[in-house]
Amino acid sequence: MLFDEHDGWRRCPAEFHACVASGPAGDVIHAASGSATLCGIPLPEVSFGRGTFEPGGDATCDACAEKAAATPPRRSVQERLYDKVLAAEPGTLRDEVLDALRRGASVHPWTMGSSADSVRPELRLHEAVEGGPEADEALRNASRVDQAEVRGDSWRFVVVMPHGARPVLVRRPLRRQAGPDRPGWSFANARKPAAFGSGTSADRVEHAVDGERTLCGIPVRDVVLYLHHFVADRRAACPRCAARAATRDQPSAQERLHKLIAAAEPGPARDDLAAALTRGAEITLWLSSRGPTLARHYAELDELTEGRAEVTEALSAGHASLAHVLHGPWRSTVVIRENGRPLIARGPTDV
Ligand SMILES: [Zn+2]
Ligand SMILES: [Zn+2]
């Protein structure tokens, strides 16, 4: 049996990595757990590489087998989150989350110990239809939080677990929606300093490498290249490279996409998207792959209400880049092909 039933929850038997210790009688296979084997040998004294510990073999350690058998089965992620959600305020929202977990709803991601500030954008509280203000308040009073997302049938639930306080539940639509306007956002101030490779000359000075030369003009064959980026304020940094690097910047993804879609067919789909990009619309996805792979796993073609046929056709073969942009009531899909003008399709973000 692969799993046990415990009060309706599936539990898998505990698993341990197998490790080997050599003794007078030959190799013995033990179960590793934490910093030692279950029978107490420190891990630095054993070697790994035999997969999962299977009790009952010829060379297995009896003490480890006994302790492995006595280890309680592993609880599923749903069962563990269920226990945490029980501490949230009772009500319909909590009941729905508990019910979804009972039915095995997917839990992803589940992050632990993030700072409240860093986790806030991921929670997408502006999309919340319930629990948003409470979660916001909880974040303001917490320094560290755990958070988990539960995908229900009609909603996405977020469990915000501030350390030292009761969890707060948030209900969000399944599909992501455009964020609020970003006042003051512009292509110019969204530019970031350009990143350069790093190379050291014979005199141990570190230079910024740009293609075939350093920014100060040394051919790359005369420097030793490193994998890390050039850091201008490092003591060994070449001052001329640092000064030139400071004048270079790179455009935001929004600015680059804006430039690319200029070649798309004129019309509202292009113009609305172009305008949204100048205001800093969120690009939720941008990747390149084989067209059919993009169509199957990323494009979400069935959600498009404008331009679906063209995009479907374009992704049926060859390579392409695919971008998703959230703006106003839309999610726009941009397909950039090797040959042919970019295509823009879109569908509503509403559930
Ligand atoms: Zn052992
Ligand atoms: Zn230099």
TrEMBL record:
Region feature (Disordered): 180-201
Full protein name: Uncharacterized protein
Q: What is the lineage of its organism?
A: Bacteria, Bacillati, Actinomycetota, Actinomycetes, Micromonosporales
